[in-house]
Design goal:
Layout (H helix, E strand, L loop, with lengths): L7 E5 L4 H12 L3 E5 L5 H8 L4 E2 L18 E5 L8 H8 L4 E3 H9 L3 E6 L4 H14 L5 E8 L4 E4 L5 E5 L14 E4 L7 H4 L2 H13 L6 E5 L8 E5 L5 E9 L2 E7 L4 E7 L4 H16 L4 H10 L8 E5 L4 E5 L4 H14 L5 E5 L4 H15 L4 E4 L16 H4 L7 E3 L2 H11 L3 E5 L8 H9 L2
Parallel strand pairs: 1-2, 1-4, 2-3, 4-5, 6-9, 6-10, 7-9, 10-11, 11-12, 12-13, 17-21, 18-19, 18-21, 19-20
Antiparallel strand pairs: 7-8, 13-14, 14-15, 16-17
Function: Cell wall formation.
Keywords: ATP-binding, Cell cycle, Cell division, Cell shape, Cell wall biogenesis/degradation, Cytoplasm, Ligase, Nucleotide-binding, Peptidoglycan synthesis
Subcellular location: Cytoplasm
Length: 451
Amino acid sequence: MELSNIKRVYLVGIGGIGMSGLARYFHHLGCVVCGYDKTSTDLTGDLQKEGIPVIFDDNAGWIPSAFHTPDESTLIIFTPAIPKDSVILNFFKDSGFELFKRSQVLGIISRGKFTVGVAGTHGKTTTSTMIAHILKDSGKDCSAFLGGISTNYHTNVLYGKNNIVVVEADEYDRSFLTLHPDIAIITSMDADHLDIYGDKDHLADSFRLFASQIKPGGQLIHKTGLPLEGGLTYAAEMEADAQASNIRIENGDFYFDFTNGIVTIPGIKLGIPGTHNVENAVAAIESALMLDVSPDAIKSALGSFAGVKRRFEYIVKNNHHIYIDDYAHHPEELKACIRSVKRLYPGKKLTAIFQPHLYTRTRDFADGFAEALDLVDELLILDIYPARELPIEGVNADMILGRMKLQNKRKCGKQEAVEIVKNEKPGLLLTVGAGDIDQLVQPLKHALQDV
């Protein structure tokens, strides 16, 4: 496939965070872009406002006639999350189109560019967005394909005038193996996606394969302690090639000092909270230094970094209530998020609302979820969000509740959770999960503010 030939693009599953980024990219290039998704969301609404038509009926009759005949100027992209029996997906297959996965298209776009690929079972979205912001804010510039909506830029795709592209490298479905980065960052390799990989060892093999695909002369940057050979290590409050030390909170903001043995940057103010985000910042700083961004420009950019939607995002912050929303959906992410909240607000009672994501993940990590959620003071747990999966007998939210030591816990529906918050008005509230729990954010905000 030659990108220069593409005039029309149809995306099956256009509403996903990665797919919508590609839709915006090709629309920006002047292509005719449209697509299908099963549900309407704020993101699909934004695409429609930007002039990208989206349908929500899995009916081939709605596909424009320009997309009925295969040719080299028409590109069909699909996400692996689309069911194999999708009518629209099978229309394109039966019509003789060559279908491309989102990851394959990203691989083609980044081919021939200086690519910074950020991988990891968690931390990759914030780290890649941080790197992109440093490059933009410093004037170095870049294009970027991000796995979340940047709060600074209100989008998940950035367009640059140079040859540098920052790509979030997703391990799901081994997607990141289409990339051949110049700088590869690996933030974490915790067991996840075991429905794809089977076990942690196969997941680790996939990350090692990703690291082996770095272009000749390229660099690997990875968190210290990961089972990887070679490369530069980074950490917060631990020995590593690049590290953060003297981490402190001043007036609700995180500050730290950076050193890699050659460059030292003291007193960096980080625009977003969390010790785990200090760690992400160390990786971002190291990659920016490799791209010849000055220490002063890096320090300034990190101070103005506003984060990513649904990554430790403040929804309400006043003298009466603090409400934070986060995408955490893996036990290690939950622990990092909850510990950061408690470090920021010691002594405050923490109420969390958690929506488990996927039956397989709940089954595989029930003990880990219980351990992480035992760190809160009060828990409301919702039913499992199934995403692409069918139910598994005996797997439900009660699996987690039954393993927890915490007494103050209960299972409830979404509307019930809003009513509880409305009645009890918790002073410190956290919503966590990767499903559709984000639909509760505005109702919960109103529930807290409704005096």
